[in-house]
Amino acid sequence: xxxxxxxxxxxxxxxxxxxxxxxxxxxxxxxxxxxxxxxxxxxxxxxxxxxxxxxxxxxxxxxxxxxxxxxxxxxxxxxxxxxxxxxxxxxxxxxxxxxxxxxxxxxxxxxxxxxxxxxxxxxxxxxxxxxxxxxxxxxxxxxxxxxxxxxxxxxxxxxxxxxxxxxxxxxxxxxxxxxxxxxxxxxxxxxxxxxxxxxxxxxx
Length: 204
Description:
- By secondary structure, this protein is α+β, with helices and mostly antiparallel strands.
- Helices cover 59% and strands 12% of the residues.
- The protein folds into three domains: 2-102, Winged helix-like DNA-binding domain superfamily/Winged helix DNA-binding domain (Arc Repressor Mutant, subunit A); 112-147, no CATH class; 154-198, no CATH class.
- It is rod-shaped.
């Protein structure tokens, strides 16, 4: 098998389509064209063509990975899964994630800390924040260091109780508020302590 590149069509400033004499078309990037000195009239045997297809596919995957990571920070695993969901092969997704890590555009240690600070600021407790770390694909081995960045939540708990608990003697109301705090990731010990601080005469 041998094909000849008949035409190079520019579809955007960084995107091109290679048109071959057998009618096949291959999407690629400016980087591939310039790095490989691609030009009309080039001949490709089967091995060279297949290698070009692989290179173009990876280059497009990297471009997609950059767009995704520029939209918002994320973990390596989160990016890898997103790329696979978008149709990239697992191998290319993994290579893109490694590439971005090497460039410093993905840093799971820093990202884990930002996740902790973000959800702590929203008033979530430790167990809920750990759920978010898991959901965002942060490796378990990074959790402990990240959780050290979690501020004390006593002030938040006090504000929450002041806004939700009008009668500390109302057991039904206390249970409702306690359950709400538990769902937000606070332990029963933290909740009991906060309730006792809220009303020193209570024994919850």
